[in-house]
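Form 7-S
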Amino acid sequence: MTNDSLGNERVAAPAAPRRHRWRARAGLLVVLALTVALASALAPGNTNRSALAAAPQGLPAPVAPAVKANNGSGSGGGPGDPPANIAPSPNFLNSCTGSSFDNSLGCQTAVLAAIANARNQEGLPGMVLPTDWAQLSPQQQLFTSTNLERTVRGLPPLSGMATALDQASASAAAQNTDPSAPAGFPWSTWGGNWAGALGSPLEDIYFWMYDDGLGSYNIDCTTQNTSGCWGHRHNILMSLRCQPCLMGTGYNATAYRGNPSWTELLVDSSGSPALDFSWNSVLAYLPGTPVAAVLAAPAVGIASTPDGQGYWLVGADGGVFAFGTATFDGSMGGRHLAAPIVGISSTSDGHGYWLVAADGGLFAFGDAGFYGSMGGVVLARKVVGLASTSDGRGYWEVAADGGLFAFGDAGFYGSMGGRPITKPVVGMAPTHDGRGYWEVASDGGIFAFGDAPYLGSMGGRPITKPVVAMAKTPDGRGYWLTASDGGIFAFGDAPFRGSTGAVALQAPIVSMTPSTTAGYWLAASDGGIFSFGVPFHGSMG
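Output:
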């Protein structure tokens, strides 16, 4: 199998000469290539995949696997291809440099105008970039613009940039070849694109999406054989189940004969691979999306996913924002509440969550079950926190006077309700087996019930700012307390991973959540997220 300069396959004798067709721009040669693989249920690392790779003349060519190549449209492809190539109008090749990364306004404006013209012929609106576009890295810009082509057509976005896929894409960009899913990475479908001598990811997107058909520089898209037409577009718009769907991007400033080399890898995956950038981080700055650049109400709580690779942030109005592997399953944002939301807790499988309001009202989303609440009951003090059982079939609500209310299979093992306390209770955490729990007061005092061991506290000791939340370690043999300045106090086997105690914050810390790796995230009232010993997956701050 050999491959052409635009990445669509053709069968030929191994010794057949490679042919390349180039697009010239100010002395540079624009080159594109793609790979694609499809499978119904392949195990991680399975090598029974089809791959296509292009090598510019004078550069070593990769070896293609001896299997039949599949086009992205074979798995459902995507929306219909344009009837013919759409030449760039305006011709942004005159406004953008292909010899280096071009983040200039002139280049951006010219390519966006050409994209708007091309999209108009499909009856689609132009592309709107996030307001922080200029601050994004070249790789993040490519991820963002690829997703903008998917979402405008009603396709699900790639939820994030997976670290392993980024590494594979970066390696491919350095070698001027298209990327493929790395060995051991779980996938059911993947596709990869490559481009050289283009300075902007928006240029990559244009040629991949709108100038890749019959009569273009795609040498395998001919009147005699049209099977290779629009291959890059098919990759970008491929049908994905998204469990999750992920992406990797690569950029090398000089790999292609001293000019930029770009790669992207789209993968329908499984599990919870580590991410280094999320689509939610883009939505926070994208005009006209449900997620605004600022919160409609202060953030009040954060909960991590069971896999430790994501988290949800909730505002006082019940708005929920998902990052990393966390999925959005609904919210109370924009709906009338009798009392503000004060906390969030996730189900054991990460496919749902509960929100609790200050009046004890409980709202369940996803596969979270409703087992009762204190909503409508007169309380001595407002509810301040929520925690769920390890099997996700119950939960506790805790009030500021230390009163505790158990629902579902959550057991009641005592509380500080009706007993004198120096400072109000601000949160709680259950033990590993759910047969006990801790309550924490704003002065750092700890109260242990059931099989929860007392491991120490800040009660009676001087602290700069009041404690606002607590979290337990993965094995339940320790816990952390956090103050409103982000100061962290660790007890038992809880390791100290860092804090914002010595940092001037724009807004106070309001909540914390642990990771399965014994690290933690802190959430500020402005939606800012601070990660310690764990990856950062985005924020609303």
